[in-house]
């Protein structure tokens, strides 16, 4: 399998894809290795993850540059991602022992009761390319800490990063027959679905997630899906600093070249400040530096997947044909690689794909709304339910809106943000199950109820 740099279209590596036979072989090996791993103490497993945590820091230059070379994200954002991943690992290092410890729930009387948390067994982690470290550590760190064996399939657009992760985990003391990378495209993922695994943990698109859920349903094992979004941001008329809110919204739209599951994908602004907001947003969007992602000053690098540029141009022309106005950007950049200028569209509505279908790029439509009720109706008019943001001076007013939103996460005066201490979950087509927080530690173990009669 060839690895292409999306910023130059050059081939930067070649890796051997797994076959069905090698995937089965890896499964047998991990199945055998998992028992000994589960027999180690949580402290021993934590010590391995602490070494991995250190390795991400000592090797950060090569890891960040590899990540940028295969995904096209600005290199500073690759460093940020590594740093963010370390923050999440730190959370797991500090909290896992507590949440995996056995719990005595009845300690008096003739029958004592306790809960013991056991590993699921061997699980698959089928992952996405947009934040391979962040979405990876959400799954494989707590899965390993819980005593599971992991077959990790990085996205075909983040394979070199997946191989770095494997190398560093092994060097940190995780045995080769406990964590193994499966390389390849969709077919390699499908072979994992055919194995008798004890859990499937997927990050990616709704289309693939639904297919996986259907295929593994009859196994009756946990299947968690972290899927896409069409996340709205609503600006109320009482905000104090329009430029600042516009800057925050723009960052939410364009960060990681717009390829974040919780990227801001549509903006609603109350009418009295609408014109001023659009002006501030557009002015700042025009200043974004689009170009070589290896350059520290670049704001927007290359889109990762080859077909994504045409996809975004298609959404923009669909919107324009239906009456939208393109105020800025939205054109391919005249150089090799998959680049688009951040696009700002107004006069948009929900007949347009731009406002309903996940874009996954630095493009956004800004729509005028009369009041909170109209904003709530439009924010909820989506098949997705990952995050939603409200900007207002008043928390009380924002909260009246936030309680009405059917999303796993709501934000007041912030957006495009994930915390290791909070559960990360999507509703509707944004997913099933959760990672992070104590719930994301418990997601990788199963409780056993002990009834102990003296
Ligand atoms: P994708 O669905 O195309 O691919 C995800 C993974 O599934 C890849 O490893 C791919 O090789 C594998 N795959 C593809 N077909 C398969 C099949 N038939 N059987 C088994 N595996 C298969 O998604 P992507 O393009 O890598 O990621 C982008 C999507 O991920 C976006 O929709 C984004 O919003 C979502 N995402 C969600 C979260 C979250 O936390 N909710 C985080 C990151 C990304």
Please, could you describe this protein's structure?
There is one protein chain. This protein is of the alpha/beta class. It is built from 14 helices and 22 strands. It has helices at 20-39, 42-58, 60-71, 75-100, 132-145, 159-171, 186-194, 206-216, 242-254, 271-286, 308-321, 372-380, 395-402, 437-442, and strands at residues 2-4, 11-14, 103-106, 111-119, 122-126, 149-153, 179-181, 199-203, 223-226, 231-235, 264-270, 325-328, 343-346, 363-369, 384-385, 387-391, 409-412, 424-425, 427-428, 431-432, 434-435, 445-453. It has a 7-stranded mixed sheet with strand order 12-13-14-11-10-16-17, sandwiched between helices. The chain has a 6-stranded mixed sheet with strand order 7-6-5-8-9-20, with helices on both faces. Strands 3-4-22 form a 3-stranded antiparallel sheet, with no helix packed on it. Helix 5 links the parallel strand 5 (122-126) and strand 6 (149-153). Helix 2 packs antiparallel against helix 4 and helix 4 (75-100) packs parallel to helix 5 (132-145). The longest helix has 26 residues, at 75-100. The N and C termini lie far apart (61 Å). The structure holds nicotinamide-adenine-dinucleotide. Nicotinamide-adenine-dinucleotide is lined by residues 126-131, 135, 153, 155-156, 185-186, 189-190, 193, 203-205, 208, 211-212, 226-229, 261, 358, 360, 386, 426, 431.
